[in-house]
Amino acid sequence: MISVGGYGYTAPASRKINSYDVPEGVDIRGRFDEEFATILTKDALQFVVDLQREFRNHIKYSMECRKEAKRRYNEGALPGFDPATRYIRDGQWTCAPVPPSVADRRVEITGPVERKMIINALNSGAKVFMADFEDALSPSWENLMRGQVNLKDAVNGTISFTDKARNRVYKLNDETAKLFVRPRGWHLPEAHIFIDGEPATGCLVDFGLYFFHNYATFRKTQGQGFGPFFYLPKMENSREAKIWNSVFERAEKMAGIEKGSIRATVLIETLPAVFQMDEILYELRDHSVGLNCGRWDYIFSYVKTFQGHPDRLLPDRVQVGMSQHFMKSYSDLLIRTCHRRGVHAMGGMAAQIPIRDDPTANEAAFDLVRKDKLREVKAGHDGTWAAHPGLIQACMEVFTNTMGNSPNQIETVKRDDASSITEDDLLQRPRGVRTMEGLRLNTRVGIQYLAAWLTGAGSVPLYNLMEDAATAEISRVQNWQWLKYGVELDGDALGVRVNRELFGRVVDEEMARIEREVGKEKFKKGMYKEACKIFSRQCSASTLDDFLTLDAYNHIVIHYPKGQSKL
């Protein structure tokens, strides 16, 4: 295998040749598969091509604006409210009314677009399932295309899965959760599909293929005349929201459906975006169904935004919870903003998973979940996220005990007290200490997550938590920050400072621990050594990479020759 076009590898051709029927200007370099061909039809690809050609320059400009903002922050500037858009923040406008089919979102479950996961999540008892092409998915060609096949079957109601090992067939219940889909962020390419000689934009591929094949059926069976529904990740400002709004309008026009049919919830998971929440809702006001506290990515973004600020070092990541003033301020302001504009304010993820072999530890984990969800519902959140079906009932009980039969708290909890939240509140330095165990945990989690991601898994159970790319990112950027500034591990009271020598020793020791924990056979077969190289390189780089997955993506792209090989 050889490197091609800066992405991945070229696979050897096989004898049997088939190819996708593609529009002019399209080159599909992913493996041919007859099932995938039902998704990658000429008409569906043409829709993606039209989106790419219409919006690629807008997307490129937005990515350049991100770079410019990063330069300003690295030179000492702080993010804040934009004086030029104060008229939007002070205005008395509201978003379009919430569709009845998604008025009640008190518990939502999230997970990758894997077939068994989709069935279990839709059957979980949650109000919403967010099917993920982003942080919970390793974006290999196989995962992405099978995910599209799985979602099409799910929308059609025909999805099933046979688990031969358990001799069990999984099918949908009569009553299921409402389906939302999260495409990738603006920054991620789709290197298996080239349009006009350059990789397609990943989120336009995810959105375009799903929308094209499913909008008509979804609106009849799930949306009660609305939909499809989406979650939008990683945005930094309203300019990026405006592009999504234009994409939605373009899709509605293509489909011949009413403006405002498509609805989306935006994850507020970057520090710059918290100062643009009104503006983001305003740009999407015909298509919005709220904002969500993407708190793990938000912590990652805090470090990334302040990478040039040695006075803003984070304590151990386990200490950066919602009780930190800057995190509580973010949550409170999000609730006030959403309810003022007539849409849902969604809470954050409960990452715990049931601990089946330790009842005491399991009850302690569930107690943490209940306390976190009680804090959210009392603050005014309209719903929350869970990572595992086993948490749904506990989360549902907490929200129902407070909300009763009301589908949400949009009209009843206005949080006008949060109107006094300032830039200083949202930027307050987090309190806590840094420890050797924090450095070790970051390293151990980061390497194991990345090893799983490289072998096709994007949602990984580690130490009784469901980890996705966001928690791996926190591990990476915190290690980088501590290394860059030679921080003292002040929580250990030993005066030890983080440097390359210490980090190298920690990596070696944690790799040995990982091998003991997973077993020699799994360690040998897995991609732990490759993951260790990538993770260590990123933690010790002179400049911080924007995203862990951008670098790692090159390791999972496989290009097939023109003419296509069918395996």
TrEMBL record:
GO terms (BP aspect): glyoxylate cycle; tricarboxylic acid cycle
Domain Malate synthase C-terminal: 434-556
Entry EC number(s): 2.3.3.9
Catalytic activity field: glyoxylate + acetyl-CoA + H2O = (S)-malate + CoA + H(+)
Domain Malate synthase TIM barrel: 178-428
Annotated GO CC locations: glyoxysome
Main location: other
Pathway the protein takes part in: Carbohydrate metabolism; glyoxylate cycle; (S)-malate from isocitrate: step 2/2
Keywords linked to the UniProt accession: Glyoxylate bypass, Glyoxysome, Peroxisome, Transferase, Tricarboxylic acid cycle
NCBIfam families listed in its UniProt record: malate_syn_A
Family the UniProt entry places it in: Belongs to the malate synthase family.
Protein name from the UniProt record: Malate synthase
Species name: Hibiscus trionum
Taxonomic placement: Eukaryota, Viridiplantae, Streptophyta, Embryophyta, Tracheophyta
